[in-house]
Amino acid sequence: MADLSMEIAGLKLKNPVMVASGTFGHGEEYSELIDLRKLGAIVTKSITVSPREGNPPPRIVETPAGMLNSIGLENDGLKKFIEEHLPFLAKFKTPVIANIAGETQKEFEELASTLSKERQVKALEVNISCPNVEHGGMQFGCSPVGTEEVVRAVRAATDMPLIVKLSPNVTDITEIAKKAKDSGADVISLINTVMGMAIDAETRRPRINRIVAGLSGPAIKPIALRMVWQVAQSIKLPVIGIGGIMNARDALEFFIAGASAVQIGTANFVDTQASIKTIEGINEYLDRKGIKDIKGLIGTLNK
Ligand code: SIN
């Protein structure tokens, strides 16, 4: 068996396959379906300071090659995460990456400093890329200035490995990635969802209450792969690839493009075993190719 272990900015992983924020809750439901111990890491649903109900329905719709969502960062809030969800996750000893979302710089600071005191949390993923909220989210991540504001504030509040999750809804992804790096990011994760919409022609109504939503799934994989490759070429930080990864073959493409780890998102809704099958498939591929260590595959695109 090849060596799948990975260390990213001090974050130690037994394998580089994580489950993506917002597609796995806080792990409770999935723990009955898969062995959470086998995962490289669990990235939580975005945590906000106060509980949020999220956007009114309909807020999910299936599309020909993926899905649109406009959840609006529904979650129980910081206190309940620490008191209830984190103790549950801690039982599995799989690294927990807390995804945080603030409406203001101050909220990001509070989330980062509070969660940094929790020893079960091994890294923070800063969500500056949600397209489904009025304040915060993509508003920060689509401008270099907004990116800098948030990343600097979070950096000052924590010594933990800091992952910044970028939005694809920008003209030049490398400009935002560079700004995140210069502001203190240790790792870049990308991409969050691509803005899209769907209409019911019979009723002429939007299929999503908030009209515009975030597209994920196989439809966005080529965009994600291109952006991961561009970012990996342009800055010297580890990159986590996200976007339409449905199986091991998809994941392998991201490693070859320069990712040091991947996150499985929409695939979890199609097959609860997708992340485990991806780990197994990566192993098989490395064995078949005689590659002893997954690190030997990163950024090896033959041009
Ligand atoms: C949502 O809760 O609306 C999705 C989260 C995200 O896109 O970051």
Give a written overview of the molecule:
The radius of gyration is 18 Å and the shape is globular. It has one domain (6-54, 71-195, 214-296): TIM Barrel. The protein has helices at residues 78-90, 105-116, 138-141, 144-157, 173-182, 221-234, 248-257, 267-270, 274-289, and strands spanning 6-8, 11-13, 17-19, 41-43, 60-63, 66-69, 96-100, 121-127, 162-165, 187-190, 194-196, 199-200, 205-206, 213-216, 239-242, 261-264. Helix content is 32%, strand content 19%. It is built from 9 helices and 16 strands. Strand 9 (162-165), helix 5 (173-182) and strand 10 (187-190) form a beta-alpha-beta unit. The strands form 4 sheets. The protein has an 8-stranded parallel barrel with strand order 3-4-7-8-9-10-15-16, surrounded by 7 helices. By secondary structure, the chain is an alpha/beta fold. Helix 4 (144-157) runs parallel beside helix 5, helix 5 (173-182) packs across helix 6 and helix 6 runs parallel beside helix 7 (248-257). The structure holds succinic acid.
